[in-house]
Amino acid sequence: MKGLILSGGKGTRLRPLTYTSAKQLVPVANKPVLFFGIESIVAAGITEIGIIVGDTKDEIRAAVGDGSRFGDDVEITYIEQDAPRGLAHAVMIAEEFMAGESFVMYLGDNLIAGGIQSLVEEFQELGCNAQILLAEVPNPQQFGVAELSDDGETIERLVEKPKEPRSNLALVGVYMFDHNIFDSVKAIEPSARGELEITDAIQNLIDRGLSVHPHTVRGWWKDTGKLEDMLEANRIVLESLDLGRRQGHAGVDSTLEGRVQLGEGVELINSVVRGPAILGDGARIENAFIGPYSSIGDGCVVVDCEIENSIVLADSEIRDIPVRIDGSLIGRNVKIGRSPLKPKAYRFMLGDNSEVGVG
């Protein structure tokens, strides 16, 4: 099998951060979301991976490289998509790369508990034409939705973002296909929003009498396309990581509580870090509190303030904030400091190279 990762979307729900950065490279626990998907595919024994790229192709290439960082035998091929034209269009333009082989398609901004090795093995053992992953969600109108037979073994219908969902089973961003999917993506027409929908292509497989197996995911799964989902993914991953590695040290009059990972060269001065939390290489924390579920990127400076349940990207500087920063996603090279104004509370979602003064 081969792998196909979609990494060409614009990330409109994470703007302004994604005006200057690919949404798939926003970090969870200081690792780009995209890397989790690549690692899951490689762990399933798949080493030939195509990545669909768009406007952010240079940034994706710079981060991922040729694939060798994920294993000596891993090979990455970049497939350019001229515009976001739907998931089925991404499959269509990958046909030459697949060369008739079966493949797993993974949306580059998704995370799934436990990886996909067992799912790939199930697909191969079943010998079906496609396998889709489903998860129960509270807001199915925002996803592709599957309607199953009473016994739950057969897919009766797939609908993309239905206004009145007849099921709460959403399609998770991982799919497995054999070569028959290419005839299906060529047979469908663009939807009302002008895209070739993967739900329509899978429905075409069903209508042609081919076998599509549904697998309901019991563990957690996150689409990290929105701020609250990104923060929840960060919490989940931090909870599951082994955070015992401490290359830095507690420093002067500082305390580490719970599971805390310190990168190389971290400086802690008169501060408390309460895990689960991760501090990247070269971070400097002074007279500060870093609370649970916080990921502080490489080279960040945090002085005289409190942060928890937040993601701060590399090389940002936050100083003298009198109210605790909570539930925030702060971009790279951001500067936040005091100003004469005195708002009572703060909630930040800032793009790269921003500079904000607060009271």
Supply the key terms.
alpha/beta; 30 strands; single chain; 359 residues; seven-stranded mixed β-sheet; elongated; six-stranded parallel β-sheet
Q: Which word captures the global form?
A: elongated
Strand line-up of the largest beta sheet = 5-4-1-6-11-8-12
Major sheet details:
7 strands, mixed
Radius of gyration: 22 Å
Could you tell me the mean pLDDT?
87
Oligomer: single chain
Structural class: alpha/beta
Low-confidence stretches: none
For the secondary structure, the number of strands is 30
Strand content: 25-35%
Question: What is the helix content?
Answer: 10-25%
Distance between the termini: 56 Å
**Helical segment count:** 8
Please tell me about this protein's structure.
The chain has 359 residues and is an alpha/beta fold. The protein is built from eight helices and 30 strands. The strands form seven sheets. Strands 5-4-1-6-11-8-12 form a seven-stranded mixed β-sheet. It has a six-stranded parallel β-sheet with strand order 15-18-21-24-27-29. Helix 6 (181-187) packs across helix 7 (198-207).
Briefly summarize what is shown.
This protein has 359 residues and is of the alpha/beta class.
